[in-house]
Amino acid sequence: MSLKSNEFDAVSFSSPIPLEADEVMGCLRRRWGVTYDLKLLIKRDRIYLQMMWGFLEQQSFPLDEETFKENLNRILEIINRAGQSDFVRNWLENVQLTPRLGRAITLPLPMDQRMDEFVL
User: Which string of b and e fits 80-94 if b means at least 16 CB within 10 Å?
Assistant: First the structure.
């Protein structure tokens, strides 16, 4: 049985390509020369991705690379499950700001039903 043009097309229903820790770390290093720490902030009924001023290569940074990557993977799992990987990927590739001591760069994540499950 062959598919007709109006039948289900798996490509048209594909989900965004998930973000992976190595991709994000590579992007951060390529753009800023260091691996900035990323955090999720839940405030009221919104979720924000924050790029912090601390970075992995900093001598005083409190995490080793393995722990940093584990934390990043937990953040990316939420972003990927919420279908926001392309949105975050685009932001990481194009944001013009640089974190400064005491000032993170904040990305408000779009809220939809998938994001609602992460906001209590």
Answer: bebebbebbbeebee
Determine what percent of the chain is predicted with pLDDT higher than 70. 80
Alpha-carbon distance 89 to 19, whole Å? Answer: 7
Residues of the chain with pLDDT > 90, as a percent, come to 69
**pTM for the full model?**
0.80
- Considering the domain delimited by 18-113, tell me its CATH architecture: 2-Layer Sandwich (3.30)
Give the start-to-end residue ranges of the domains of the chain. Answer: 18-113
Beta bridge partners of 49: 40, 107
- Other Cβ atoms less than 10 A from the Cβ of 34: the count is 16
